[in-house]
Amino acid sequence: AFMNNHAENAYNAGLDLAGTYAENPELSEEPGRTKEVNSYDGFRIDYFRSVSYVDRYVGKMIEKLEALGHAEDTMVVFTSDHGDMLGEHGLNLKMCFYDAAIKVPLLVHIPGEWDQGERDDRPVMLLDLVPTIAKGFGIETEEALPGIDLTSDAYGYDRPVYSEIVSSFGADVAQYGFENHVRMVKTNAWKYLSKAFGNHELYSVVDDPDENSNLGDDPAYQDVCAQMQELIDEHPGKYRVENVTVVE
């Protein structure tokens, strides 16, 4: 209804599909028990059912844009805030920095740009969306924004990306055993976790993509840890490519 009512005017809108979880599993014939409800297989089944639900309603939105004649004059962005572990490393949900939890989809349609469709695996952050959208609509900003415009700023695979957890519940406590504040930086070579409590973690992105071997305590890699820690200590407000030094 919203799209029909605003078809003649410029607008911005968000289709928020947060909380689109699959319905509870069907009860088994044996009283007091459910099928797969507490197993990782059950979580994975529900996850894929939820993905199908999201796909269906995003498709309906795109079909409506086409029906209204606005498919080619509308910027469409599809992304998420986090992934889910679904049993990897013995964890579920989010609140950790394994790739299963921090890598999310980012699909962007900008009329006049990328019309043929391109797949790019260079690292990005959600902070990049604001300057990208501002550039797409010709919006001038008074100050330099954190992040980069993905359509015009040249950057490489060695660009660091950052995130952090400040929390006292959920999978982070299950993983670390206590409340913690964890900051993460990832380059094309390394992923490093700096923790307020406990030992830091270092993983080789190239040699150990599944993050099974923590090198944070290995004496041979303390120089790398120190350089990655410098990236974390210096990163606030310095997300642009020219403001960071890459650790090889």
From TrEMBL:
**One MF annotation (Gene Ontology) recorded for this entry:** sulfuric ester hydrolase activity
What cellular component GO annotations does this protein have?
A: cytoplasm
Concerning InterPro entries, the annotation shows: Alkaline_phosphatase_core_sf (IPR017850), Sulfatase_N (IPR000917)
The signal sequence is: none
Task: Return the PANTHER family for the record.
Answer: IDURONATE 2-SULFATASE
KW Iron-sulfur (keyword) present: no
Sulfatase N-terminal domain span: 2-138
State the name under which the record lists this protein: Sulfatase N-terminal domain-containing protein
| Keywords for the protein's UniProt record, in alphabetical order | Hydrolase, Metal-binding
